[in-house]
Amino acid sequence: MHIFKEPIPYQNPSLCMKVWRFTVSGEERTSSDIWHYHKEVEFILVEQGIHEIQTPNHTYVLQAGDVMVIGSSQLHRGRKLSDKDLSYIVLHIDFQPYFDPAMMMYYRHFLEILHPLETLNYIFQENEAVRNGMAKIISDTHDEVWDKRKGYEIAVSMHIKHLLLLLLRHDTREMLTSQAHVDADVDVIRALITYVDDHLTEKIDMVVASQIAGMSYSYFSKYFKKKMGSSFTDYVNQKRISKAERLLVTENRSVNEIAESVGIENMAHFYELFKRFNGCTPKQYLRKMHGMDDSL
């Protein structure tokens, strides 16, 4: 299976985003692009033609005016359907820099702790007004970046914050959790997230995490769950399994080796966690991915 981590070169590094219009002509493609992923969240707006997007769990068929979101580091690929020309805009965003102190209370909503952002695609399928609003944001962001009129950086920042607001306000199924605030704890939360991301291959010690937060062990446990909507252990496990999913399809290693490489030495525990987050075993996950791969 071909797969790669796609680098996203930002058009303006201070904006931490990239937006590009693609046009594909010719006959319908019989095979899809290769599986790929990137840390940035991706939004797609189809302007003309039919675009098929696959993720490990869903296949989306997008037509003119349709939009969708793909979460951070989520495997995906696409192909052109029909012989009509295909035109679409892709917007990649690193959300973190857009959460200034005034917005920090909503930061954890977009960390994909309990649900991947892909689950929010129901909003665009069920709410035409939001779908049209999101399409306009993506299109306007593209035009601002490419026209580079005076103050375009301000306009882009406003568009991206409007995008976040649309998702937050119209998530009627509450896939984005909303019970806690982290506004006064921006530096602590970011330091903890960085610590987890940097040490997924090792043992992650909650004692060390509590020291980073400047709290006692017992208080930290309650603090993290209140602020993030998940226990620290569950958050770390979700991050480990997400990395294991990518390693399963990107590297030719045994399940045991992959479990160890994401910091889980107990195989029974690894299988239990993998099934909890994916509803299947690692081998079933791999078969599903290979079954979707036309090149095999």
Protein described:
- This protein is an alpha+beta fold and 296 residues long.
- Helices cover 42% and strands 17% of the residues.
- The chain has 10 helices and 9 strands.
- It has helices at 121-126, 128-147, 152-169, 186-198, 206-213, 217-228, 232-250, 255-261, 267-278, 282-291, and strands at residues 3-5, 17-24, 35-37, 41-48, 50-54, 59-63, 67-70, 77-81, 86-93.
- The chain is globular and about 55 Å long.
- The model has no long low-confidence stretch (mean pLDDT 89).
Descriptive tags:
about 40% helix, single chain, alpha+beta, about 300 residues
Short structural description:
The protein is of the alpha+beta class and 296 residues long. The chain contains 10 helices and 9 strands. The strands form 3 sheets. The chain has a 4-stranded antiparallel beta sheet, with helices on one face. The protein has a 3-stranded antiparallel beta sheet with strand order 6-5-8, with no helix packed on it.
